[in-house]
Structure formats: structure tokens, C-alpha cells
Known about the structure:
The chain is α+β, with helices and mostly antiparallel strands and 379 residues long. It is built from eleven helices and 13 strands. Strands 1-4-5-6-7-8 form a six-stranded mixed β-sheet, sandwiched between helices. Strands 10-9-11-13-12 form a five-stranded mixed β-sheet, sandwiched between helices. The two termini are 41 Å apart. GO terms for molecular function: inositol-1,4-bisphosphate 1-phosphatase activity; metal ion binding.
Amino acid sequence: xxxxxxxxxxxxxxxxxxxxxxxxxxxxxxxxxxxxxxxxxxxxxxxxxxxxxxxxxxxxxxxxxxxxxxxxxxxxxxxxxxxxxxxxxxxxxxxxxxxxxxxxxxxxxxxxxxxxxxxxxxxxxxxxxxxxxxxxxxxxxxxxxxxxxxxxxxxxxxxxxxxxxxxxxxxxxxxxxxxxxxxxxxxxxxxxxxxxxxxxxxxxxxxxxxxxxxxxxxxxxxxxxxxxxxxxxxxxxxxxxxxxxxxxxxxxxxxxxxxxxxxxxxxxxxxxxxxxxxxxxxxxxxxxxxxxxxxxxxxxxxxxxxxxxxxxxxxxxxxxxxxxxxxxxxxxxxxxxxxxxxxxxxxxxxxxxxxxxxxxxxxxxxxxxxxxxxxxxxx
Length: 379
């Protein structure tokens, strides 16, 4: 398992590098931000270059993990389909090839013959990152790769990534929107139970290099399996522990009734808003908020699997809000924690993997109980 964690940290950094290259290299950036107009509007491809960036990252992770752990190859799932139609109406399946040149040729077919963009992207895909200091040595987890599956969210908070607003992160403060909300999320779950057991989060745009070297990233990881709970972050002191009352992070589009119900627990300035489901859970992991509440079924397994594993390693978790409100125990038990192995059979497409009941991400069970009590009978 330590080998798998080291590999995931490495491929997440490669993914972060692809995300940075797509913003730093002019030919790729133009594709990223351009919107099709007029007659071009119905041409299926290049307006969706952002989807290609997602797919390339997803397939790169799938390729690298499958190469080292072939027994996992059929259980590496992502948000995106890897089938594309180019401007000529040709169908192209995006995969990572054995060499940079082969990958560039395949990407050029998707990009309507744009060889410059294809070469830049292929170079980033095949470039190995610098060594990652992860202090994973000595970590032993009694699981074999054949028991595990993976969920990938190549770039969570895509809209923030495209918009590209640069914010300077203040230590100890949640910053509601901007490039830092875009995350690479890789979550590992047990195939038998769906429990999240390992998570890697890479924040490609954490800070700007003072010497003009562009963006630098930051990574976070956690392992939670039986009695083994290890996280790259120590358990933070939350707002309520420092006497400032409970703080809750929400989506700005959250229902009014939820916002009003939560004001009984926290003062108005402790209800904060942020972009990206992954980033909001990361805020709870880092102690920038105590709890994240979402009443809609608008997140998916790939959004929550990785950060869920980190929260479990810190003694918290992510529960299904609807099930928690219906539960007689009133909060967290095995019945209400999110799992990652079974689709909703009655849904189609991506909705089969939605977290339909909404969610609550928390570090402390007593805070989860307070949230569930405040929302009971309101939704």
C-alpha cells in the first residue's frame, strides 16, 4: 500500500503539472478559454478543450497505475468518457501511448491537426515530476491492490480553473474562489465495502514562486484502514475549539432554509461560502471550517472519495445528509457514511454515481450531531 500511495502522489503531481501547463503555454491556454461562436458552435470539439485536459489527466493516471498494478486496471474510474469526436466528425479514443511522439500524434487527431498544442500536452503527460517528499516510509497497510478501486477527479472546480483568478492565500483563512479551488483528487476504496481507505489531493495552484518560476502546488494525503489512521496533516483545532463557535462552509447556491436553520448554531460570519466540492471538504480537513453541508445531490463519488479518506484518518468522515436526518441514532453510523462501490441502478449516466442524499463532511462527531439536529424536520 505504501508503494501505491507513493505512485498516487507522483501521478497527482504529474496531473497538476498538466493542469499548470494548460494555463501557462499560450497555444493551450487559447484553446482552454476560447468559446465557439456562429457556425463553429455545433462543431463538437475544440470548445471543450477543458474536457480534453480532464480526460488526458484521467487517462494518464489510469495508464500509470494500471502499468504498476495491473490487477487494479479494471477498477480505475473517472468522471469523463475518453471518446471524442473531432471537427471532421471522426471518433477518437484518448489514451496515453507508450511514447511521447505516439501520444502527440493521437492528440493531434483530436485537436484537428493542431500539432503545437498536441506536442505541448504530450510532453507534459510523459514528463516525470521531481521527487515528492511524502514521509510514507514505514507505512504498512494490510491490503492488496486486488481488493481496491480508484476514483479520479482530474480537475475539480473546473469553472475556477478556466476563470483563473489568482488569489494570495492567507494562512488560516478560507479563500472562497480562485485558482486554488481547482484540485486533483484521487481516492482509493475497498471493493467489498466501498469504504474510502486512501486519498491524495493535489492543489496545483497553491502559491506563486517568488523568483518568477510560475505556480507551485501542495499535496495532502491520508490512509484510513482498521486501526491505521495516518494523514499528512495533523488534526487541526477548529473554530469551536478556539471558542469562536461552529463554522460551516456552504455552496453559495445552498437552500435558504439550510442557511437559516444553521444560524442557530453559528453566527452569520461563521457561515462561509466557497467554490468546488473537493475544496470545501479540504477546508474542513485543514480546519478552515468545521463542517461542510450540502443538501443537494450535486456531487459525485469522484468529488468526495479522496477527501473522505483524509477526514477518516483525522477521526471525521462524510455522511449522507438525507440518511442522517432519517436515522434514529441521529448522526454518524455505518449506514450513513458515504460508500464508493455501488451505483444507483435506477439512474443513468453520471447520475448513477451521484451522492444523491446530499452530504455533511465533518471532523468531529459532536459537531455532526449538532448539524443534523438543527436540520431535522427542515428539509
